[in-house]
Amino acid sequence: MWRRLCPRAELAFEVTLNCGQSFAWKKMQDQQWIGVIGRNVVALRDCDATDSVQYMCLHPQGMAADSVDSQVRNYFRMEINLTQLYDTWKLPNDKHAAAFVALPGLRTLRQDPIECLFSFICSSNNNIARIQQLVDKLRVNYGDKLVTVDGVDWFAFPTLDQLILIPESQLRDLGFGYRAPFIVKSAAILSALGGATYLQSLRLNANAADVQTALTQFSGVGRKVADCVALFSLDKLEAIPVDTHVWQIACRDFHFKKAATKSLTPTIYAEVGKLYQDRFSPFAGWAHSILFAADLNKVKTLLSPSPAKKSKRKSPTPVKVEISADNTVIPSSSTEQLYHPNGRKKRITKKLLDMDDPSS
Predict the structure, then answer these.
(1) Could you confirm whether 145 is annotated as catalytic?
(2) Closest-CA residue to 72 (of 46, 40, 102, 95)
(3) How many domains does the chain fold into?
(4) Does 296 reside within a domain?
(5) Mean pLDDT in the chain?
(6) pTM of the entire predicted model
(7) Whole-angstrom Cα distance, residue 180 to residue 344?
């Protein structure tokens, strides 16, 4: 049974689920999106008749409606009135207002911390489509099968107990490359720290800087991945994941002066984050995600990706870019023109660079 979740103005699920914060969802041929929240398989759709977003629990059958509703609402942070939040950001004559007008309903998710941590460990040197593939491999090979819907199998994300049993060699055979030891080592570290209970303690820790530091003890986790995990799963809505694209936005729209530097140093990382926090606190990370997505949308069709498999046209993939020590920007999969922070065009190469540069 389809149930009403919220007005459409409160959740634009297509862009929310396709902007690189979650890798648990897929767009189906009937314009529905299906994904996994915990061990629940959930479908979303727009309902024109009621101008609302509706959801249906596809698995498990017979689950109490109140329980499903609570989990879905928690996942999408429905306790926050997004329309009102957008209104506080759209200041008169503010250059950022256009982004909020262009992308209404983009919500920051509250994901399972273990799933979010290991998903973003897979993000190094990757674009969104490739991250999705690796996360799918973790689900299919190591998670529990939940249900088959219209010929498609849906799997839970592996538990920590399942993750710590994975041999590094298997992950390498599956194409995880140098990320394989990151996953194996991080699973062992998390288990020693107390598993989900430890991550829950970080969710309860009010100090975002302390949480960022704590997360960087995991293998393959630098500042940016730590801030992604903090923002998308640990309730740190002031966390700002900074990459070169976010840095460029800061130079262009916040008049950030340090545009000629060749690398994203720790000092610049912190200063760029503070610009967003000073302007949009206490929901700076949420606003940052909207500005980032809106800026990519100028050159990418982010709002209307083609359904997978059956379409001959490939959907454009939003790209996360990083900058190397020699000042070369490397996109993972894109033909868009990229620029130095000072406005000069960059030469595009085919080499990939880690999305979360350990030196940054």
Answers:
(1) no
(2) 40
(3) 2
(4) no
(5) 84
(6) 0.82
(7) 37
